Predict the structure of Bifunctional chorismate mutase/prephenate dehydratase.
Amino acid sequence: MATDICDIRNQIDHIDDTILDLINRRLNLAKRIGELKKDSGNRVVDSTRESEILRRLTSLNKGPLNPNVLHHIFIDIIAAARAVQASQRVAYLGPEATFTHLAATSHFGYSVTYVPQPSIREIFSEVEKGACDYGVVPVENSVEGSVRHTLDLFFESDLCICAERYQPVSYDLLAQEVRLRAIKTVYAHSQALNQCRNWLNQYLPDAELKECSSSAFAVGQSAREKQVAAIAGCGTAAIFRLEAVASKIEDFSRPPTRFLVIGKEKVRPSGRDKTSLMFALTHVPGALAGALAPITDAGINLVKIESRPTRHESWSHFFFVDLEGHFEDGSIQKAIELIKPHALYLKNLGSYPLIGVGV
Ligand SMILES: C=C(O[C@@H]1C=C(C(=O)O)C=C[C@H]1O)C(=O)O
């Protein structure tokens, strides 16, 4: 038996050596690409190429590797490949361990510098002034609120959407050690606490529950004391060097929150893309139907539509629509030309790879 384990471990060591060697060879190639990009003035991050790689590997994968794990592994390899080309700074809605932070790390991996911001407006402005290369903002069904704020800020800003990301809203119980019995106190943000009440009543009925202002504060308390646990977003244990004592402890599972990666670059087509438009219409009967008709007529899939008051005197509503396709597709360009006469204002917020929910 022991010899068997020994033998198999030797084989694993050999595979690890090969993986390490291959990763370093891949990084050296990325470095060469980085030099070519520098010469031609191209940006380091190529989201289209990245999504092509992830889609290709996901379809090649025959298991037992879980597709989500495959995604995480390659996001980190790709992040390391970006880092050897240039350092990247990513602004997100802080503090650490928010769902926006999680969305950011699952998109950019751990080889970039994350810069927490106190508000969505500040994320936009950090990227606009070039202090950060990208920003990550919540846009739909957020637990952090202010999603409408994100939509409104696109009116003022020239930044575009470079990518989207779906982040599950799920909680872990974190502590220094994994024995549930040892936990006497649980710190959590009020939202997290409210969403995990049943689980806490069932598994930690005697623990003292302490509400605090952020998950980052909660995990800070846990890092200080062995008997203190914290509730934080699923997957944050590694960020804080704590153990996940229990996972998915929320009482009801919720749909994932959608986040956007914003930046200055226009993303080229990947083969399966989404285009986000924002337009304002006059408040006359049939205006919206008229503006949407070119989309229907072209057989374009309207993925989402949402409206916001413009708060400008003579304009009534902004409409945000997500279409399946890329701005460079003839059908999308033609539809936009036909919408324009109906609109007081129209802006293309960007085309970016379409991502399945949960990836
Ligand atoms: C290596 C490149 O740079 C970055 C890293 C990539 C990778 O690791 O595969 C892919 C796209 C870029 O974001 C590249 O552009 O090919």
